[in-house]
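[Q] Does anyone have a clean structure-token version of this?
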Amino acid sequence: MRQADSEGQGDAILEWREAFDNGELNALHAACFDHRLFDDDWWAQVNRFSLGWVCMRQSGELVGFVNVAWDGGVHAFLLDTMVVLRLRRRGHAARLVAEAVRHAKDSGCEWLHVDFDPHLRDFYFDACKFAPTEAGLIRLR
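[A] Here you go.
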């Protein structure tokens, strides 16, 4: 499902479960998370473990992405929210998350979880309306 940008933020188009090339998503991930370029098989991974994902394209270029992993039931998990540097701070990431929330809800999920680094607290709590909750974490590596 395509959602055109209706808020004057350029020609950024959002699409749920859109096809993408592993190379373009690996490049986006490396740029957004500041690491070397990997050769991960994102396509196989999201098709096996995800409820869906949202791609954002501008003039055909993949410029944003968010993954909605899930447990096969009522819990979904937001992962890998990404927007290219030149388009940040314009509301694009919040649009990606809102589209992911809408599709998770429409799919029958009851809960959407997210974890994040402290500097993203205002984004997820204020811009995206996630509620703070207690959670636990064990670092495995």
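[Q] Thanks! Anything notable?
[A] The beta strands are 2-4, 13-16, 50-58, 61-70, 75-83, 111-113.
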